[in-house]
Amino acid sequence: MTAPQSELQRIMDALQESGMTVEAVEDGALVRDGETRVALFAEKDHQGGVIVRLHLDLDLYVEEDSLPDILMGMNLMNQGLDYGALNLDPVETDTEDDDVPVTFAVLGRSVLWLRDLGRSELDRLREHLRRFEAEVTETVERTLHGSKGMSA
After folding, report:
1. Across 45-135, where does the E strand assignment appear?
2. 3-state SS class at 113
3. Rounded CA gap, 4 and 128, in Å?
4. What span, in angstroms and rounded, lies between the C-alpha atoms of 6 and 151?
5. From CA 113, how far away is CA 104, in angstroms rounded?
6. Nearest 10 degrees: CA dihedral of 141, 93, 88, 26?
7. Cα dihedral sign, 78-82-85-86
8. Percent of the chain with pLDDT over 70
9. Which ranges in 5-118 belong to alpha helices (H)?
10. What is the mean pLDDT of residues 60-84?
11. Greater pLDDT, 147 or 95
12. What keywords does the record list, in alphabetical order (predicted)?
């Protein structure tokens, strides 16, 4: 008798069967679509179902002294997002120097609750994953390449 598959493994298998490139990393999975890589984490919800967290690293970094302008711009961008949100995470540094400004990475994040891991819920996850990546990437690119940049 084999042990039941984890929620994460079942999701990874379903995404691979639908043609997506998926690889296991530490406690999650990396879903690749062209040049884009979305980190996916899944855990059983204690009230039933599965919670899926998506993280999209945008390779954008912000210095501490730019935070007021960046936060205002991110707030405006987040208002137009339906499938995720932009967040700032402090970047770990090797230095203990308090005078060095903190750098933040700009990340796209999304959370999706699945009722179960049946076909219709996995289809909903695939669509959410596709839309999340497209929406966040498009919003950031449009803002960065637009005439006003990230200024609010």
Report:
1. 50-63, 85-90, 103-114
2. strand
3. 26
4. 44
5. 28
6. 90
7. negative
8. 91
9. 7-17, 67-79
10. 90
11. 95
12. Coiled coil
Name which of 110, 100, 108, 107 is nearest 61 in CA terms.
107
- Give the integer Cα–Cα distance in Å for 95 and 84: 32
Q: State mean pLDDT over 85-108.
A: 85
50-63, pLDDT tens digit by residue? 999 999 999 899 99
Query: In this predicted model, what pLDDT tens digit does every residue of 127-138 receive, in sequence order?
Result: 999 999 999 999
Go through the domains of the chain in sequence order and give each one's CATH number: 7-145 (3.30.1460)
Distance, in Å, from the CA atom of 56 to the CA atom of 28, rounded to the nearest integer, reads 13
Which candidate, 78, 86, 82, places its Cα nearest to that of 128? 82
Q: Amino acid identity of 82? A: D
